[in-house]
Amino acid sequence: MKLIILNDYDQASEWAAKYIRNKILQFSPGPNKYFTLGLPTGSTPLGCYKKLIEYYKNGDLSFQYVKTFNMDEYVGLPRDHPESYHSFMWNNFFKHIDIKAENTHILDGNTADLQAECESFEKKITAAGGIQLFVGGIGPDGHIAFNEPGSSLVSRTRVKTLAKDTIMANARFFDGDLSKVPTMALTVGVGTVMDAKEVMILITGAHKAFALYKAIEEGVNHMWTVSAFQQHPQTIFVCDEDATLELRVKTVKYFKGMMHVHNKLVESPPSEPKKN
Amino acid sequence: MPSNKSVSDAPITQFINCRILRDNELQREDLWVREGRILDPEKLFFDEQGYADKRVDCEGSIIAPGFIDVQINGGYGIDFSQASEDVSDGVSFVAKKILEHGVTSFCPTLVTSPPEVYHKVLPQVKVHDGGPHGAGVLGFHLEGPFISAEKKGAHPEKYLRTFKSGGLEHLMEVYGSLDDVAIVTLAPELPGSQSVVRELSQRGITVSLGEHRVLLLVSESVSVQPGRFHALSNPSVSAVVQFHHRDPGIVGLLTSDGIPAGRAVYYGMIADGIHTNPAALRIAHRAHPSGLVLVTDAITAMGLPPGRHTLGQQVIEIQGLHAYVAGTKTLSGSIATMDMCVRHFKQASGCSVQEALEAASLHPAQLLGISPKKGKLDYGSDADLVLLDEGLHVKATYISGEEVWRKGQ
C-alpha cells in the first residue's frame, strides 16, 4: 500500500485529484479506449471533485472518453431527491464537466428487480473492460461503499440493509431526522472493488482515524471491510494529518518519509502542444 | 456535442456563465431551455442522456424572468385609451418597443373612458403570446370608470361611474366584453362593489382596489368592507401615504391580519423617482416586501425624445424623466421604463438585486395568478428571460427561449 499523508483536507483533496488526472492522461483515453473510473459520494470526495472540475475547466483534463461507475445508491429514494446519489453526482461533478451521460453508471435503487439491477451492473463493468481506478472512502465503522461490518470480503454488487452507524452518519443529510434516511442500499461488493486494477481510498478527519487504524494496522477482518485492500496489489490511501491520529508514530514517519517519492506521481504532466 | 434525446427532437439551448434568479436568490447555475420552456438538465442527463445543441455565453450576466408590466397606458406616442381603428397596431408597436426594457408580458391599460371607447378598443386586442414581434399581451387592465370622484386623480370626472343595480351586468354594458381583460380597477367604497368584486374574481379577473397612483391589487376576492379603506392623501406628484393611527388606510391593509389565509395582497408602485416618494417606497417595501409590484403606469409620452410633443388634446414637454403639461410644472404622468423603475426601486429602498427583480417579475405574475408559468425560472416555466448587467441594465431579452432583442443591434 501507499499511505499518502497531507497536512489538511484541501491538500489531500488536491493530491488525490492530481493523481486521478495523471492516471487518466497517462492512459491516453480515446474513442476505442475508455478510462474506467469507480467513484464515491459523501463529503470526503467533494474537495477532490472540485479540483477535477477545475482541471477540466483549465483544459488540462477531459472526461469525454472516461466511463464512470458509482459505488452505491439508496433503495427507494426518488432519483431526483436532493439526497440521492444521482443528484449528488450531477450537482457535484457531472454537470460541471464534459462527460457523456451514457458513459456514467449509477445503480438504480428504484427498479422493480433489485437483484437483476445488481447483476446487470456487474456485467456492465465487465463489458467496459473492468475498472482502472476505483476511488472510495471509508465509513467510521471501516466500511467501503455500503459493505457494512460483517460483509463478505468477496462480495459482489447486491442489496444491503444499512447499519445503525451508517444511518446515523447519513442523518445529517436528511435534516437530522433518522426516520427520513433510507434503510437499504445497492452497493458494489468488496470483491467488486478488489477486481479493480488500482484502488484509491480517501480518508480525512479525526473521526475516521480509528477506522484507518483498523484498516491498515490490524489484520484483514470482515468487521472492518476496508482492511480487505491489504490484499490488493495496488492500493493507495490518501489522508490528512487528523486521519492518522490513531496510527503508530512509526507508520506515519515511515510513509511521510516516502512523500518525496510519492509526490512524483502527482507532478504536472509535461505540456503537450494542443491539438487543433 | 451532438444531442441524443428520447423525449423530443427539439433543440436545446444552454445559457452558461450566468447568475440566475431562482428560489429567491441569485444562483451560479446554467439555464437550459427547450421548446420555449426551462428544462431540467439533470432529468435530461439521466433520463434522456441528452445535452445542449447550442451554448449561449452570458459573460457573467444576470438572468431574471422577463419583466411583467401590469399598468402601462401607452408609449411612443401611442395612447391605448384612444378609440382608433388600429388599436391593435398601436399595442403591437409598444409591445415591440418595450422588449428593450426587459418587458416580456404586459397589460395594456385603459384609463376611465366612455363606453364607446371600451366597445371599440377591447375587441381589437386579444390575449396573445409574445415573440420576436413584441411582448405578450396578458389582457387589458381597465382602470376605471368605477372609481370614486374623490380619488380620481387625472381621470376625467365626467366619465366616472357608480354601480347601478345588477352590478356585473352594468359593468358589462360599460365595457362590452371581459374576454380579454386581466385586471379591473375599481373603488371598493362604491356601493355594490362587493358583489362585483366577487363575480369578477370568479371569472379569473384580478380585482384592483383603485387609488390613483398607488394601486392596491388584490388577487382573488378579498371581502371588501366599505369604509375599511380610506383615501390616501391627495395623490399629488409625490404620493405621501397618510397613516392615521385610527385609520391606517392602505398601509394598514398591507399589514392587516384580516386577510384570509391563502389570499395575498399586492400593491403597485411607480418607482420612477418622481411619482412615489423614496420614503414611501421604503415603507411599503419594509411593510410588505413580497407584495410589491413595480408598474410603469407609463403614459403616451414614454419613449419619446426630450422636447415638445402634441399627444391627442395635450401638448407635453419632456425634460429628462419628467413629462410636464407644456409651459407648466404640472406632471402629466410617468415616462420611466420598467428597467429604470427596477434600478430606481433598488436604489431608493435599499433592497437586494433579487428583491428588485422579483418586484418586476415574480410578484406581477403571482398577482395575475400566472406563476410559475411566468415570472419564474423554474423547470417548466416559460423561458421569458431578461439578461442584465451588474447595474441592472438590460443586455438582451428572450421570449420562449428565443432572443427578441439585444443591446447594440
TrEMBL record, chain A:
<keyword id="KW-0119">Carbohydrate metabolism</keyword>
<dbReference type="GO" id="GO:0006043">
    <property type="term" value="P:glucosamine catabolic process"/>
</dbReference>
<dbReference type="Pfam" id="PF01182">
    <property type="entry name" value="Glucosamine_iso"/>
</dbReference>
<dbReference type="InterPro" id="IPR018321">
    <property type="entry name" value="Glucosamine6P_isomerase_CS"/>
</dbReference>
<dbReference type="GO" id="GO:0006046">
    <property type="term" value="P:N-acetylglucosamine catabolic process"/>
</dbReference>
<dbReference type="InterPro" id="IPR004547">
    <property type="entry name" value="Glucosamine6P_isomerase"/>
</dbReference>
<dbReference type="GO" id="GO:0005975">
    <property type="term" value="P:carbohydrate metabolic process"/>
</dbReference>
<dbReference type="InterPro" id="IPR006148">
    <property type="entry name" value="Glc/Gal-6P_isomerase"/>
</dbReference>
<dbReference type="GO" id="GO:0042802">
    <property type="term" value="F:identical protein binding"/>
</dbReference>
<dbReference type="GO" id="GO:0005737">
    <property type="term" value="C:cytoplasm"/>
</dbReference>
<keyword id="KW-0963">Cytoplasm</keyword>
<comment type="similarity">
    <text>Belongs to the glucosamine/galactosamine-6-phosphate isomerase family.</text>
</comment>
<comment type="subunit">
    <text>Homohexamer.</text>
</comment>
<dbReference type="GO" id="GO:0019262">
    <property type="term" value="P:N-acetylneuraminate catabolic process"/>
</dbReference>
<dbReference type="InterPro" id="IPR037171">
    <property type="entry name" value="NagB/RpiA_transferase-like"/>
</dbReference>
<dbReference type="GO" id="GO:0004342">
    <property type="term" value="F:glucosamine-6-phosphate deaminase activity"/>
</dbReference>
<feature type="domain" description="Glucosamine/galactosamine-6-phosphate isomerase">
    <location>
        <begin position="10"/>
        <end position="234"/>
    </location>
</feature>
<keyword id="KW-0378">Hydrolase</keyword>
<comment type="function">
    <text>Catalyzes the reversible conversion of alpha-D-glucosamine 6-phosphate (GlcN-6P) into beta-D-fructose 6-phosphate (Fru-6P) and ammonium ion, a regulatory reaction step in de novo uridine diphosphate-N-acetyl-alpha-D-glucosamine (UDP-GlcNAc) biosynthesis via hexosamine pathway. Deamination is coupled to aldo-keto isomerization mediating the metabolic flux from UDP-GlcNAc toward Fru-6P. At high ammonium level can drive amination and isomerization of Fru-6P toward hexosamines and UDP-GlcNAc synthesis.</text>
</comment>
<protein>
    <recommendedName>
        <fullName>Glucosamine-6-phosphate isomerase</fullName>
        <ecNumber>3.5.99.6</ecNumber>
    </recommendedName>
</protein>
<keyword id="KW-0597">Phosphoprotein</keyword>
TrEMBL record, chain B:
<dbReference type="GO" id="GO:0008448">
    <property type="term" value="F:N-acetylglucosamine-6-phosphate deacetylase activity"/>
</dbReference>
<dbReference type="GO" id="GO:0019262">
    <property type="term" value="P:N-acetylneuraminate catabolic process"/>
</dbReference>
<dbReference type="GO" id="GO:0006046">
    <property type="term" value="P:N-acetylglucosamine catabolic process"/>
</dbReference>
<dbReference type="GO" id="GO:0106279">
    <property type="term" value="P:negative regulation of UDP-N-acetylglucosamine biosynthetic process"/>
</dbReference>
<feature type="active site" description="Proton donor/acceptor">
    <location>
        <position position="297"/>
    </location>
</feature>
<dbReference type="Pfam" id="PF01979">
    <property type="entry name" value="Amidohydro_1"/>
</dbReference>
<dbReference type="InterPro" id="IPR011059">
    <property type="entry name" value="Metal-dep_hydrolase_composite"/>
</dbReference>
<keyword id="KW-0119">Carbohydrate metabolism</keyword>
<dbReference type="GO" id="GO:0046872">
    <property type="term" value="F:metal ion binding"/>
</dbReference>
<dbReference type="InterPro" id="IPR003764">
    <property type="entry name" value="GlcNAc_6-P_deAcase"/>
</dbReference>
<feature type="binding site">
    <location>
        <position position="143"/>
    </location>
    <ligand>
        <name>Zn(2+)</name>
    </ligand>
</feature>
<dbReference type="InterPro" id="IPR006680">
    <property type="entry name" value="Amidohydro-rel"/>
</dbReference>
<feature type="binding site">
    <location>
        <position position="212"/>
    </location>
    <ligand>
        <name>Zn(2+)</name>
    </ligand>
</feature>
<keyword id="KW-0479">Metal-binding</keyword>
<keyword id="KW-0378">Hydrolase</keyword>
<comment type="pathway">
    <text>Amino-sugar metabolism; N-acetylneuraminate degradation.</text>
</comment>
<comment type="similarity">
    <text>Belongs to the metallo-dependent hydrolases superfamily. NagA family.</text>
</comment>
<feature type="domain" description="Amidohydrolase-related">
    <location>
        <begin position="267"/>
        <end position="404"/>
    </location>
</feature>
<dbReference type="InterPro" id="IPR032466">
    <property type="entry name" value="Metal_Hydrolase"/>
</dbReference>
<protein>
    <recommendedName>
        <fullName>N-acetylglucosamine-6-phosphate deacetylase</fullName>
        <ecNumber>3.5.1.25</ecNumber>
    </recommendedName>
</protein>
